[in-house]
Amino acid sequence: MNNWKKAAVLWTGGKDSALAFQVSLNLYDIGRLVCFVPADNRQFYAHPTQLMELQAQKIGMPIEFVPISEPYKQSYCQQIEAIRDSGTEVLITGDISTVGGMPNWIEEVAAGLVEVYKPLWESDRHTILDTLIANKFKVVCSLAYKKHFQPTIAGRYFDAKLISELKQLPIDACGEQGEYHTWVLDAPFFKESVQLEGTRVVDVDEYCYLTYEQAI
Residue 199 and residue 133: Cα distance in Å, rounded? Predict the structure, then answer.
């Protein structure tokens, strides 16, 4: 029996939180996924909670959707305190870098409550993308902003061709500044993959996003 600290992965359903999970498996006793969500239950095209629930089932791990409301910092601190009190010592995040030059939000709101582990922090973006392919992650782009991608990459799977294109664009190749978002449909720690049926790409004002009729 090991003495690893009990940890939770901050789960978004995307490639970075999944890769952070993968590289932390031999470092912490990971017992659950945690996703902070708006208290009004509004959904986001890029990260639908229904898909995250299915991902958790495929991983074989519980997921907890934690409601957040204004004032946001106080709400985050209160919820992280509750997470700590339920036995979690470490929060694992897939954050790679600062967003918009701001300090890391999770570190700020978790200060003095739990440890924050950021295994991908300031990692080389090309290396991260190559690692996904090398470890056979199945990743699809769920949303992409038109100002960065013409034609859109929404609905495209991460293969050598797409990754090569991302490496050549004048953006954060991992989309850390919100250029695009992803869903992970399979990874080494999934017991079985997520299957999407009836997929289509929807074009709206500033972005395109992937939707589906059924996920199994």
Answer: 22
* Strand 29-38 relative to strand 6-10, pairing: parallel
Best CA proximity match to 158, nearest among 11, 15, 17, 12: 15
Directed axis angle between helix 125-134 and helix 15-24, to 10°?
70
- Chain centroid to Cα 154, Å, comes to 16
96-152, pLDDT tens digit by residue? 999 888 889 999 999 999 999 999 999 999 999 999 999 999 999 999 999 999 999
Angstrom distance (rounded) from CA 112 to CA 146: 40
127-145 burial, b for 16+ CB within 10 Å, e for fewer? ebbebbeeeebbbbbbbbb
Spatial distance between the Cα atoms of 83 and 175, rounded to a whole number of angstroms: 28
Prediction pTM value: 0.96
Say what the pLDDT of residue 101 is: 84
pLDDT per position as a tens digit, 31-90:
999 999 999 988 899 999 999 999 999 999 999 999 999 999 999 999 999 999 999 999
CA–CA distance, 1 with 101 (Å, rounded to integer): 42
pLDDT of 1 above 60? no
Question: What is the Cα–Cα distance from 159 to 133, expressed in whole angstroms?
Answer: 7
Which residues make beta-bridge pairs with 117? 92
* Domains of the chain by start residue, with CATH: 6-117 (3.40.50.620), 135-215 (no CATH)
Hey, what are 211's tokens? Answer: 């939707």
Query: Can you tell me whether residue 65 is helix, strand or coil?
Result: strand
